[in-house]
Amino acid sequence: MLDVRKIREDFPVLSKKVYDGRPLIWLDSAATSQKPRQVIQALVDYYEGYNANVHRGVHALSMESTERYDEARAKVAAFINADSPETVLWTRNTTESINLVANSWGEDNIKAGDDIVVTALEHHSNLVPWQQLARKKDANLHILPITEEHTLDMDAVDNILSPHTRLLAMAHESNAVGTIVPVKELAKKARAVGAAVLVDGAQSVPHMPVDVQDMDCDFLAFSGHKMLGPTGIGGLYVKREVLERMSPFLTGGDMVLAVSYEDASWNELPMRFEAGTPNISGVVGLGAAVDYLQNLGMENIREHEIQLTKYALDSFKQFEEELDVYGPKDPNKRGAIVSFHHPDVHPHDLGTLLDRRGIAIRTGHHCSMPMVRSLGVPATARASMYLYNTEEEVDELVDALREALRYFGNGAG
Question: In the prediction, which pLDDT does 413 show?
Answer without folding.
Answer: 36
